[in-house]
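Repro:
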Amino acid sequence: MDDTNGALAGLRVLDLSRVLAGPWAAQMLADLGADVVKVESPDGGDDTRKWGPPFMTGADGERSDAAYFACCNRNKRSVVLDFRTPEGAETVKGLAAKADILVENFKVGGLAKYGLDYDSLRLGNPGLIYCSITGFGQEGPYAHRSGYDFLIQGMGGLMSVTGQPDGSPGAEPMKVGVAVADLFTGMSATTAILAAVNWRHRTGKGQHIDCALMDSQIAMLASQGSNWLNGGVVPGRLGNSHPNVVPYRVFEAADGHVIVACGNDGQFARLCDALGCAELATDARFATNEARIENRAAVEGLLGQVIGPLDRGDVIARLEAAGVACGPINSVPDVFDDPHVQARGVAVPMQRTDGTVVQTTAFPAKLSETPATYRRAPPGLGEDTVAVLEDWLEN
């Protein structure tokens, strides 16, 4: 349970956030060794404890928290405090005075009435790194609005480039199947927090971090944003095709689907040779990536005719031998059954203090000297209140 060797060991994080973006950032800090205390409302705690089904099953066979809660609250201690009361607010202020980092995702100005905003808390803790996560940021015409992942995927442009193209069956803007705007923002918040920690090492000063889902989503448009900003091209929905690379899409084989990804002309030549259609690589319509984009329908149609009669495993074996990126489309159970995934130790089982077994997913980066550790299962509501108050406020 005690980890003093993590990269962030010794840092105290007060997590006032709920749902996904903030808890995701705090969990990343916790996995790397920080002591993270999650402050929850006495009215049932984090909303995601109830975001089911599915629900976890306790050691006694009874229904426990929703599986959703388990994805982003590992390695934390849970404290129940009602900071809407003067007594609760004072206790949270006391914890903030001992914290290195505070993460919150309340509406802009929502914590000021309790004296828990940055300007109030930094008076008692000038070194505090205070990270505010909102839908639209602390300033601007939309700052007052609530921001949910689905909304941000739409307003931030992601849905305009996700889904089948117009004229195809099922054509409509489509959200991604995971709340990626929240997750992008959680990762951006973590990066910003660590940058602020380094700045504090140099100057002794804390700072306020304004982290918005909208800003994070727009940044993650990446090449699609650049295609518009620098090329004047309005990106659209291409289904599983790539706007800048061909072939880079899903093809249907005789017994399933296979992803083929050719990043350059040499790979395309090897692809064609491996599939027995080497003549396509020397055809002037397809010899370069630019030409293949101009003749996308023709080259993808011809490749589809070649791949269609073949077994998926045969296609993958041929292309792997040729050094061409390819692979299947796995279901989530397929992912966790994959021998490579199992060899990487991606699934991490943990056990709560009441005996409930909770399955979690490993921190994705492997540090050679200070690896992530898995010390505490996602906590039961308020189970650490007494211990944390003694640890942080009396020592």
